[in-house]
Amino acid sequence: MLRRLLVLPLCLLLLATQTFAETRAKDRVALVFGMASYRNVTALKNTISDASALARTLEDIGFHVDVRMDATKDEALAALDKFAFEAETADIALIYYAGHGVSVQGTTFLIPVDARVREAKDIVTASVTMDQLLAAADGARKMSIVILDSCRDNPFPDVIDLRDPEVAKGLTTGKGGLAAPSPDRGTLVAFAARDGEVALDGDGANSPFNIALRTNIVKPNVEIGLLFRQVRDDVLAATGNQQEPATYGSLPGEPFYLTADATTASPEPGVEELAVAWQRVVAADRANLEKSAEAGDTRSIVGLALAKLDRQSTDYAPEEAQALLEQAVAAGDPDAKYRLAKVLEGGLGVDPDPARALKLYQEAAEAKIPAALNDMGYFHFSGELGLTKDRDAALALFREAARQGHTEAMFNVASFAANGLVPDLGPKDAADLLYRALRGGSELALDGLLNNADKFPKETWAGLQQILADNGLYDGSVDGSFGPGTRRAVLAAYGIFETED
Amino acid sequence: MRTLFATLLLALGLVALLPPGAAQAQECLDSSGEFYVTCTSFSSDSGSPGIGPGLNSGSTRTIVRILQGADATCGSELIEKRYRIDCLRLYYLKVADALPDSGDYLPIKTAMLDAAAKLDAIVEANLDERTPPIRPREGHKPAAKRLPVVRPVQEDMADIALAQAAEVVKETELIIIRSGGDPARRTEHYTDIAAAVEDNLVILRSA
Q: Which of A75, A165, A409, A457 would staple A374 via disulfide (CB 3.0–4.6 Å)?
């Protein structure tokens, strides 16, 4: 028996608790490092003023900023640990590092002020790695940004010969590569200079990169992909093309701003909201977006396409939108396949085409797009889009998506596990998945859990209560009963804090 | 049964999502002065003059009011359980009757007619021919207009029949959710809001 339910909009959920006031966790958090007074290597001149200036700028545009100057390795790691927890309930987490760094065979080591490096292998134990910075920012719900304002040349020329291929072998951190980024959430890594290039200090108190960054991030309504393109252009101009900043990573499917004017709300990722949001980018910066699209940037092509689906805009042209999406699909862009599938499934301005939608969902899922994997799981579960119901297939897809950090998929796997339908996962695993889905910021998971508390057995609730207690979010008894205290703790895990009036 | 109605009304709470400033549906009283909110009545035979083809908050509010009437009449303790399914069917027909045969409300109209037919089938299958039908007043108010004839199901089959009716309500709810909002928003409802519950398994689509 298949039954449908309405997942309550969050506002309705909150209306039910009018006797409580609620506060939301900080939606943008930043951690700023400035390293200058090195004890064992050359001290740096501008890093403290660069870090201070950027911290002030970030505060001005609404970031909650933690500033750590001249941090030792232990202090840096403790700050990263604290930041990682805060980042989980924030939309944007940004880490800025100004100080010495060295890049060896693709691993970037950042040097705390107490680093003592007598031989090459010491660098692993003495430094903080780029991976650790990325991991600390990775929990953010929409965008993780790591900015490295550092020349990754070699501060230890007497100890490490970067030309020696044997050196790299001794410097492995034992960590694998980063997980495949989800298109729902963006990760951006910005370097002040390309690998091996020197980042210039400039003539004044701040480096050219720092100045360009601060100048551009305060500009309202500049989409982040276009913003860092502008930073690069400014630095190239200021340094006579000697220094070229580089960015890596994947940007979210929705347009994203570090500074937005008062009328800008960050969109939820429904297709209509995406359409409206991209239309705003077009209105503000059409030339740059079109330039990127012409250069073959599929994200810009998809953005232009979605902008044409905004019914309120004079640019509304669903057929052109479909043609642009087809262009990005033909270029093999899996995210474009997922977007086009949604348009064709729902008939957004075009005739619905469930068969083609299914094919595109399948292709996007084969390309491991987490949202597509989860939706394909949903179709197998519910028997929609002409599929035969198949729970085994659904669960396998949910697990694959959950492994990639997809929060609704985590919830779905938890649902199976809580009901004893996953041989290798028990109630504690279900609880852990539910907690991670909440920390990951899934509003659907929050609503799905609170509105279907009875669908999760006591053992799962007890497991969740224990995790909430371990993280300082719950002080009631771990008895598996879902009551007001547990409800409050679940909301807190998501990032909503209720206090009695 | 109250929960059953409240759930449906909750779905229609999507009225809050509809465009602000949308046209208000015409509201009027019938000759008795008691039959509230809409110019249609159980006996009207064509679309409401108050509801146009395009979705707007006023029209949706009119539908909500009719269904609130269903809650007040069919969900009341004043009506025996065995009459409730047929009572709800009449309100569904009333909603369908209030809606035009084209435009954005057509899916809701079709859903309401389908639901009414399914409720009719449930009543027919469990009909208690030995108990007389009733004609309750709207909202059980003394001076209110009476509903058309409401048929009972057999007493011992009432709970099973009500469970079947609840399923019909759930199905209808989804269709209404998916029709809520302007067409640009519809894709979101088709793809983002839906969740499935089956055998205690709550399954979410991607946000």
A: A409
